[in-house]
Amino acid sequence: MNITLKLYATLTDYLPAEARKTNQLPMQVADGTTPMDVIGPLQMPEKLVHLVLINGHYVPPAARVSRALQEGDVLAIWPPIAGG
Amino acid sequence: MNDEQLLRYSRHILLDQIGIEGQTRLLEARALVIGAGGLGSPAALYLAAAGIGTIVLCDGDTVDLTNLQRQILHHTPSVGRPKVESGRDTLHLINPDVDVIALQSRLDGERLDAEVAAATVVLDCCDNFATRHAVNRACVRRAKPLVSGAAIRFDGQISVFDRRRADGPCYHCLFPEGEDVEEVRCAVMGVFAPLTGIVGTMQAAEALKLVAGIGETLNGRLLLFDALSADWRSIQLARDPACPVCGPA
Lengths: 84, 249
What we know:
heterodimer; A: mainly beta; Ubiquitin-like (UB roll); five-stranded mixed β-sheet; B: alpha/beta; Rossmann fold; eight-stranded mixed β-sheet; 38% helix; 18% strand
């Protein structure tokens, strides 16, 4: 199935170069894939995976390993930010 | 309010939600603005224009040429001057009635606590987690509303932490401390010029609402802004019952 991964702020460094213009990456994943299944292979430091959202709704840490993504879902990940 | 003030603030006074009573609250208020950079610039400009009576502006830095791409409180001739002095001059040009107290230092310890205690509302416009956590602790201790904004690259976050509302989280509930989160500064990562304007202006709006006592603030919510996609999201925040800062001691 098709999903879209969006990485914000400093996490955009973990996107392939061609995806950085829009900070989003279309992906094909297997049925039953969870947010952590997508996040894990990107090898982002755990402390930078601060907020996880599916279609704009917050996913608490415990649900990141259990909630199955659906066709068309947008998975968004924000690091902690402090810039001003 | 004198005749000139009635005229100056007439477009606020026309608003049913603000009126004379709300504008009087703004004139009597004291706002503590921590950081006179990308976020503090638009925040302080709008607070001054809107008639906040006293603005305490804190920043230990001097104006650098690289600041001028976004820090609209400062002008080209201000390069090399303390940011708080440059900022005070600009705020007085916009509104000479405002009492601007310029503190050229990074506030901490007892001075931070005293300034928070004296403030009606606190705006965290700084650029690092250590200061953000220190400001939060002082706001929790003194039960003062905190308007927090942050921005980097093309992305920004805004929230209000108002401990006068028993159910609301504090900054520490959302951003636990001591996790060795790498500081990512605009100097290294870059920041889109108007992003800091958008986030700082939202901070001013929330601060004015808190002082005037109108509307629903961002207390218990985090607003996320993605400038590349022109997309806003608002997520609900829960209080951490085990929070070492705002939880039961």
